[in-house]
Specification:
CATH superfamily of the largest domain: MetI-like
Distance between the termini: 53 Å
CATH class of the largest domain: Mainly Alpha
Largest sheet: 6 strands, antiparallel
Number of domains: 3
């Protein structure tokens, strides 16, 4: 028996099974984690039913009424629940998203299960998503449109929806005029100011040049005045309607429809209506700008900033990493110095990322960016152009952070190319450079892509260095727009990783922000998977291409 066990251990099978078990447990844990994030995050967009609670906060007190969504429930000790007058060492309580922050000051309330007298789900309960102060929960009682009151109308709800839709269209027009049209004019006006300042520094501020600038400025001013007139008309339409409502405890409220994003009655919605509503909310999450301190709305600027930064980083890190690997493997003399460089490269991969952030801030932003401002943008000083954190410096910092991964992967690929291929190419009359460029590097392409995949996976999830070199809580404009030179590498940007940190740990309303943290984390994981799958597909196609070439 012992001999059989010893033989079994000698074959290495226990370690094979142990390794397989460890891999299986790791896969299960990863899938479970992603599933947990998906359930917690994606469930946020489903319209939950609205309940009206009649409850007693303490025994022998007057009943209170509250309306909202049941978000969570838990069983806690009496001391944690505030030592209420109900019996029991532990007490079950429910977390209710009650909204109406402008009225009660709180978005969430705890209700003791023992104190609930009655729960009802009225079909006419209304949820109103607002651009300020979060959700409103109550009952619609009337509308005011152009000074006329509309109430007790059979089409009150339909009219309410029509007015919201009309106001949202006006809101989109206002955003287009303010952000795109007037924003473009302000950008051109600033360029003219800088041009005038440049002429002054160069001693060419002549009356002729000033006349040209003033003519352009007057034309822009006329455009600006026409857009402001258009804005006044749009705002007069935007603020012409409001709705009247009453809360569950009888408080009346009047809210301008200019503050309303959408309104719905979840208790009266069927499964199909809720599914359509879910798709609408999820699409808004992907394509809209954030609002309410990033706890509502969408995260499109963060998605755009993450993808753009990763693309720029990949464009920068690949050539530098490949060149360094080719030199170390093919041209450098293999001796103590080369071995020392390889050790240094391997050690760089283990340096904490925040150290790279400090390096990027000191070298790229202050030294390099400040020098660029002095040489090429003196008219903007003392306001910095590249001497401040921005997209370019964030991409370069992450390129330095991930370049050791690309170097190591490329070197391993170069080592797998048989020496006979190099010698055959040289024997046919090719130079060493031609052999490297046309034969060796194409056969190493799959290894390069592997290094790039690892670099993208790490860079997309980094947060600490980006906090120092360019990422912000809310970027006023995207780094890519319609204003020349179209790609503005000096601008700050939003990032999904930092968005998760900001919403999860810096939000004043943690309970409201928690579902968005899960949803954003899931989106970041999916984005990394998509980028990696794209690179893997390219790598596999290159591998098959050159494998076929080798066989032929």
């Amino acid at each position: 028996m012992n001999k059989h066990i010893k033989h079994w251990f000698d074959t290495g099978m226990p370690f094979v099974w142990l390794n397989a078990g460890a891999v299986s447990v790791s896969v299960i844990m990863v899938v479970g984690l992603i599933a947990l994030i998906a359930v917690r995050g994606l469930g946020h967009f489903w319209p939950s039913n609205i309940a009206v609670f009649d409850y007693y906060a303490e025994p022998n007190t007057s009943a209170e009424r509250l309306m909202g969504e049941i978000v969570d429930e838990e069983t806690v000790s009496r001391s944690r629940a505030g030592n209420p007058g109900y019996q029991g060492e532990t007490i079950k309580r429910n977390l209710i998203k009650s909204g109406n922050r402008d009225i009660s000051g709180l978005d969430f309330s705890w209700i003791l299960d023992a104190g609930i007298k009655n729960i009802s789900y009225p079909d006419d309960a209304v949820v109103v998503e607002r651009r300020e102060w979060g959700n409103f929960y109550g009952f619609l009682t009337g509308l005011e449109k152009d000074g006329q009151k509309i109430s007790n109308n059979d089409r009150l709800w339909e009219t309410f929806q029509e007015e919201i839709e009309r106001n949202n269209k006006v809101f989109k027009e206002i955003r287009h005029v303010e952000k795109d049209l007037i924003g473009a004019i302000n950008y051109k006006m600033e360029r003219l100011r800088l041009k005038e300042r440049s002429l002054e520094l160069e001693g060419e501020k002549t009356p002729e040049n000033l006349q040209i600038i003033n003519q352009q400025r007057e034309e822009l001013q006329r455009e600006y005045d026409s857009y402001t007139t258009q804005l006044e008309k749009l705002y007069s339409k935007f603020n012409s309607s409001s709705f009247n409502a009453i809360t569950a405890d009888g408080k009346k409220i009047t809210v301008s429809l200019s503050k309303v994003v959408r309104a719905y009655q979840p208790n009266a919605m069927g499964t199909l209506d809720k599914t359509l509503f879910y798709c609408e909310k999820f699409w808004e999450f992907l394509t809209d700008d954030p609002r309410e301190a990033n706890t509502e709305g969408g995260i499109f600027p963060a998605i755009f900033g993450t993808v753009l930064m990763v693309i720029i980083m990949a464009v920068m890190v690949t050539p530098f990493g490949v060149i360094a690997a080719v030199y170390l493997r093919e041209y450098a003399t293999q001796g103590p110095f080369t071995r020392l460089v390889r050790i240094a490269v391997n050690n760089l991969a283990g340096v904490p990322s925040v150290v790279y952030g400090v390096f990027g801030l000191g070298f790229f932003v202050y030294f390099l960016g400040g020098s660029i401002d002095q040489l090429f943008f003196p008219e903007s000083l003392p306001a910095p152009t590249f001497g401040t954190p921005g997209l370019l410096w964030a991409s370069l910092t992450l390129a330095i952070l991930t370049v050791p991964v690309v170097i190591v992967a490329t070197e391993e690929g170069l080592s797998r190319v048989p020496r006979a291929i190099r010698e055959g190419s040289l024997a046919l009359g090719a130079t060493k450079a031609e052999t490297m460029w046309r034969t060796v590097l194409p056969m190493t392409a799959s290894a390069m892509i592997t290094g790039l995949i690892l670099a993208v996976a790490r860079a997309a999830g980094e947060v600490a260095p980006l906090m120092l070199v360019g990422v912000v809580k809310l970027a006023p404009s995207l780094a890519l727009d319609g204003n020349a030179p179209f790609l503005h590498l000096d601008r700050k940007f939003m990032h999904l990783g930092f968005h998760i940190y900001d919403v999860g740990f810096q939000s004043p309303n943690v309970e409201a922000a928690r579902p968005l943290v899960y949803a954003t984390a899931l989106l970041l994981v999916v984005l990394i998977i998509i980028l990696n799958l794209t690179a893997i597909r390219i790598r596999n196609s290159l591998r098959e291409k050159y494998r076929a070439a080798e066989q032929s």
